[in-house]
Amino acid sequence: MLIPHSEIPFLDYSLSQRDKPAFIAQLRDKFINGGFVYLEKGPVPTEVIDKMVDATTKFFALPPEAKDACDMNRVAHFNGYLRKGPAENPTREQFNYGDENITLEEGSPEYHKIHGSTPWPDDALFPGCRAAMAEYYKHLKTLAMEFTGFVSEALGLAPDALDQLLESDVSKRQLRCKLLCYPTCPPSTTGFVPHTDSNFLTYLLQPSEQLGLEFQKPSGEWVGAPPIRGTYIVFVGIVLQKITHGLVKAPLHRVVSPTQGTRYSVGFFQGVSMDTKVAEAAAKFQFPQEVLDMKRAREEREGESTKEYVFTEADHLPAGEVVLNFKLKAHPLVAYKFYPNLFPKFHPDGLPAKYANAVH
Ligand SMILES: O=C(O)CCC(=O)C(=O)O
Ligand SMILES: [Fe+2]
């Protein structure tokens, strides 16, 4: 079942210019009570989005050897092409990129290496790909910074209160764009397993007609989030959930593969600074009673427990280290080639046999 049109949590971005208090009130209500919005009339020019969508479909249509030339295992930064195959990702293909030209300070911790260059497709083979993607990225970065200010106000904080989590040094900000391609599959094939996004906020573009993205309602029922032209779905991630002690909650979602045609999506993932320690950051914020009352009302309605938020051991580590640890587990060959000191901790049995030909 799809979310009925009347229940889609639309948020008109242009309202932020015309009637900011109304915009903030809607954002507050939708984030506290659902954890995502369909952002419409956003500031990114249509031609920038159209070129990005065109580049996305053309990238995945490249011959397999051209995509493999952009393999994620070529760099230390978890950018590049990822073939289908891993358990949580059985059918989809992916291409990640982020800020380039990042220089590391002398003596930086290992986790500062998680952002950096991308193995791009050959420009002769695919003219304009990199430029279109870079232009889109630039606009999303601006949108994300502006939207963060609105989220701050929606939570009852000063507009710049969350900026301290994000740093002015772009190399530490943890921004990444992911192009995703889900091919036709038999009915009910998993495209991406149920999960909550682990970052701060996600801005998702669904440019294809194919359905597939689903959210879990508090009742446990899964409902489809249809693609609507000209909108981004903006989701709360786990880091924002933790920083707000559960005032807003990261929605559980999954993707079911299409049964006809290919589904594409483009996610812009906004993290907090690599050096931010989530538990420490969370201690700095105090939310007004009026906003806490909305959380209480949700908890009562949904039968949630109102227990104090419990932080895990990882919440006391820098956010970049948590991301690196997760990625080193998921990408053994990158760990082996670029993080030799950390490799044994995550792969005590050595490199899995399937990578034997990739190293000498
Ligand atoms: O493809 C989509 O629509 C969503 C993908 C997703 O949830 C993710 O990559 O975290
Ligand atoms: Fe997700």
What would you note in describing this structure?
- By secondary structure, the chain is an alpha+beta fold.
- The chain has one domain (5-98, 116-273): Jelly Rolls (Sandwich), CATH 2.60.120.
- It contains eleven helices and twelve strands.
- The chain has helices spanning 15-18, 20-33, 46-60, 64-68, 129-154, 238-243, 278-282, 289-302, 319-330, 332-338, 343-346; strands at 10-12, 36-40, 80-82, 93-97, 175-182, 190-195, 201-205, 213-216, 222-224, 231-236, 253-256, 263-270.
- It has an eight-stranded mixed β-sheet.
- Helix 3 (46-60) packs across helix 5.
- It is globular, with a radius of gyration of 20 Å.
- The mean pLDDT is 94.
- Bound molecules: 2-oxoglutaric acid (AKG) and fe (ii) ion.
- Residues 195, 197, 253 line the site of fe (ii) ion.
- Belongs to the iron/ascorbate-dependent oxidoreductase family.
- Residues 173-272 form the Fe2OG dioxygenase domain.
How are the elements arranged and paired?
Elements lengths: L9 E3 L2 H4 L1 H14 L2 E5 L5 H15 L3 H5 L11 E3 L10 E5 L31 H26 L20 E8 L7 E6 L5 E5 L7 E4 L5 E3 L6 E6 L1 H6 L9 E4 L6 E8 L7 H5 L6 H14 L16 H12 L1 H7 L4 H4 L14
Parallel strand pairs: 1-2
Antiparallel strand pairs: 2-10, 3-4, 4-5, 5-12, 6-11, 7-10, 7-12, 8-9, 8-11
Helix pairs in contact: 2-5, 2-8, 3-5
This protein binds 2-oxoglutaric acid and fe (ii) ion.
